[in-house]
Amino acid sequence: MICFFLHRTLPFSELVKRANEKKHEQYFLNAEEKYYLRSLGDDPRKDVADIRSQFPELSGDIHLPIYCSSDRVFSCVLRIGSPHVQLWTHYDVMDNLLVQVTGRKRVVLFNPRDANNLYLTGDKSRVLDIDSPDLSLFPRFSRATRHECVLEPGDVLFIPALWFHNVVSVDFGVAVNVFWQNLDEKLYDSRDTYGNKDPLPAQRAQQILDRALKTLEELPDEYRDFYARRLVSRIEEKSYMAEPS
């Protein structure tokens, strides 16, 4: 199955109406298309999403337990989705609470230690169908341990930073995400309005690795293989790569 999405603008009431329909009289592509809203800042290039600013009439209905000081809260995101809308497996760099307001949502999580089994491109997994994966393309995915739950209206799920999650709306649903900065503020990318850019030291480390790999390409195959294995070995020897006891 080939799936793709388009960005379109609708009045809020029309979006809610269409997202809650099984079949549409008015549509963009076909009568069974799905709808998904992820709220943005007033200026998406500069401002983060905050339900208190973008939807002030709704913000009073959301009461969250206090897990961090208010100055650490990064964003408060409103999400509305049609039944069966799925968000691909990805990680965020901040802790967050997923608050299910209406409808049900299936959430599948993977530990950060499974990163090498998820075939990442950036912060996303290339394994789109996690229920029936093509193991001829993604053989290591079978090693990944999944943790699954279904959120009912009123449920709140804590998703720690770096934990991978795949989310499917079982029904028409409304949810709110609250992200907060659990690291020192100076470690985050100040240009990041979505809260999903890697911390600055991690970005620098990946850039250094990219340059190292490019440098190794100057060597013949057997030398390139040997020194690449030495680099991998040095990383694996670091204490932060050790398995938990």
UniProtKB/TrEMBL annotation:
Any idea where the JmjC domain is? 53-197
Per the UniProt entry, the signal peptide is: none
Q: Which InterPro entries match?
A: Cupin_8, JmjC_dom
Q: Which Pfam families match?
A: Cupin_8 (PF13621)
**Listed PROSITE patterns:** JMJC
Q: Which GO terms describe its biological process?
A: wybutosine biosynthetic process
List GO molecular-function terms, semicolon-separated.
tRNA binding
| Entries under Gene3D superfamilies matching the protein | 6.10.140.1470, Cupin (2.60.120.650)
Q: Which domain of life is it from?
A: Eukaryota
**Where do transmembrane segments lie in this chain?**
none
Checking PANTHER family in the record gives: HYPOXIA-INDUCIBLE FACTOR 1 ALPHA INHIBITOR-RELATED, TRNA WYBUTOSINE-SYNTHESIZING PROTEIN 5
Q: What is this protein called?
A: tRNA wybutosine-synthesizing protein 5
Organism of derivation: Geodia barretti (Barrett's horny sponge)
